[in-house]
Write a structure and sequence with these properties.
With 501 residues, the chain is mainly alpha-helical. Among the domains are: 127-284, no CATH class; 428-498, Arc Repressor Mutant, subunit A (Orthogonal Bundle), CATH 1.10.10. 54% of the residues lie in helices and 6% in strands. It is built from 23 helices and eight strands. The protein has helices at residues 2-24, 28-41, 61-66, 77-87, 93-102, 106-119, 127-136, 143-153, 166-178, 195-206, 218-225, 233-248, 252-258, 263-274, 323-329, 335-372, 374-379, 389-396, 400-407, 442-454, 464-473, 480-489, 495-498, and strands at residues 45-47, 296-300, 306-310, 318-320, 411-414, 417-420, 428-430, 439-441. The strands form three sheets. The protein has a four-stranded mixed β-sheet with strand order 3-2-5-6, covered by helices on one side. Helix 20 packs across helix 22. The longest helix has 38 residues, at 335-372. The radius of gyration is 34 Å and the shape is flat.
């Protein structure tokens, strides 16, 4: 018996640990959704302040759960009526308990649902629907061509590109018409889309609005947008078809020489081409910009001391409905009802404990970040210090995996702006000069590189070797290869590409 009890306790602790880890890694909005779902599914759980009830009698929740039926305490008339109704409910007791304890009226739920529907934005017309609508206004000559044109339309991606070769789409369409895999050459020609018909359908779609749609790559997309009546159509067409790579790498003198024109004149044509849309379908995208809620805010008081304030307004305070403790103590309560209530109360307490542990862990980690990164909070990116998750884990006494889960997908509002918690954990580069000791973070070095290049002469941009010398003036000594790696990480082009002709 002792062995079985020990094993059961270990299993319960393991389940609590798993739930705590799951809650720990949830961003604030996902935690809000999880809590709302638990409120719907667990009748013993309610919001603090939702119902004013007298405080629980002496003893913890655990004591109430452990109390066996005995002499029932004095109860008011309402509680007695509740118990009588429950006894008469038969197999419907679970539903009755939920209805009595939730205290959330049907009308209130309906009002919330109606409000949610009214606040739901109208469905945005997709690119595919817009193209299909235009097809319905055209005559394609045959029903199968109309069907294949629609097939092409609904195979375009969200940016308006056709990622599959036309031949593959044609083969797939013909096989679908037959309803099974089959050799197209063995099928009567009148039932299949020929190569010529497929090309005709594609040309029709590529003539639709927005211009550039149903292209296979960016070159074709831009070419489709050129105006054939433009006097410089052939020149622009050749620039796109043959010299896109040279233009993207800023090899303008070479291109200008090929067209026997000045670099200034070439830049005018490039400017006109740059006004074309490389993603013609993007304006129809239904993707929404994610709304980020910081899990905490670092604030500075009048005395210059920083403090961490957790965001709690999105996660309601929870408690266990005291009515269920009364039901558990009543001798008329059946074992089945008790088991159900105990299970739900146990689930509710685990959730509350997991949320409290999540808040405590986030608070301690951010407090440690605040201590280490005070210079960053005061002065900005350039002063961020190298910090590893293991260091924070050792400092607050948790496993490094706990720190990793805690900072995952979470954000913090600082005096320098909104940042991901992971932003503050970066490796360091060893300093070899005498005026700076220890390490400086990778992020700080990148910021210094940006500052150096921001002030360079664009007519004669600095090479990576020049940047190395510029960093040495600030007491930072790293190799040219490291500068190149950090420059690319910051999406900064090479000196050749940055040159202003």
């Amino acid at each position: 018996m002792k062995l079985e009890s020990s094993l059961q306790q270990r299993q319960e602790l393991r389940l609590i640990s798993y739930q705590s880890l799951e809650i720990l890694q949830l961003p604030i909005l996902e935690l809000q959704t999880a809590v709302e779902q638990e409120l719907l599914e667990n009748p013993v759980l309610e919001l603090k302040g939702e119902i004013e009830e007298p405080p629980a009698e002496a003893g913890s929740d655990e004591a109430a759960l452990a109390m066996e039926p005995g002499t029932p305490p004095e109860e008011d008339k309402t509680a007695s009526e509740d118990m009588t109704a429950m006894d008469n409910a038969g197999e419907e007791w679970k539903e009755y308990i939920y209805q009595q304890s939730s205290r959330r009226s049907f009308e209130s739920d309906e009002d919330k649902k109606m409000e949610a529907l009214q606040n739901t934005p109208a469905r945005i017309q997709s690119l595919q629907d817009y193209l299909y609508y235009q097809l319905t206004l055209l005559s394609l000559g045959s029903e199968k061509k109309k069907e294949f044109a629609s097939y092409i339309v609904y195979n375009t991606d969200e940016n308006g590109y056709l990622r599959s070769p036309l031949a593959d789409l044609r083969t797939s369409f013909n096989n679908e018409m037959l309803g099974k895999e089959h050799d197209p050459n063995a099928v009567p020609p009148e039932r299949l889309i020929s190569e010529e018909e497929a090309a005709d359908c594609l040309r029709v779609i590529q003539s639709l609005d927005p211009a550039g749609v149903a292209a296979h790559d960016i070159k074709e997309c831009l070419l489709l947008q050129l105006d054939e009546t433009d006097a410089n159509y052939e020149l622009k067409k050749r620039l796109i078809s043959e010299f896109m790579d040279d233009i993207s790498h800023n090899r303008l003198p070479k291109v200008a020489k090929e067209f026997n024109m000045s670099v200034d004149d070439l830049k005018l044509f490039i400017h006109e081409i740059s006004r074309l849309n490389p993603k013609p379908g993007a304006e129809f995208s239904s993707a929404t910009i994610p709304y980020i809620i910081p899990d905490a805010t670092i604030e500075k008081d009048e005395e210059g001391i920083y403090s961490v304030k957790l965001e709690k307004s999105f996660v309601p305070a929870l408690r266990i409905n005291n009515n269920y403790r009364t039901i558990l103590r009543d001798k008329r309560t059946s074992k089945e009802v008790k088991d159900f209530i105990r299970q739900k109360m146990d689930s509710a307490k685990k959730l509350v404990a997991a949320i409290q542990q999540r808040e405590n862990t986030i608070q301690r980690i951010i407090a440690e970040i605040t201590t280490v990164q005070k210079d960053f909070l005061e002065k900005g990116h350039e002063y961020i210090k190298p910090l590893k998750m293991q260091e924070v884990a050792d400092k607050i006494g948790v496993n490094v995996s706990t720190v990793s889960r805690t900072v995952s997908n979470k954000y913090i509002q600082t005096p320098q702006g909104l940042y991901s918690l992971r932003y503050f954990f970066s490796g360091g580069s060893l300093q070899v000069t005498e005026n700076i000791q220890g390490q400086i973070s990778r992020i700080s070095i990148i910021e210094k590189i940006k500052q150096i290049l921001q002030n360079e002469n664009k007519d004669s941009p600095m090479s990576d070797a020049d940047v190395v010398e510029g960093l040495k003036k600030d007491g930072i000594s790293i190799s040219r290869r490291t500068v190149t790696k950090y420059r690319k990480a910051a999406n900064i082009f090479s000196s050749r590409s940055r040159k202003n002709f």
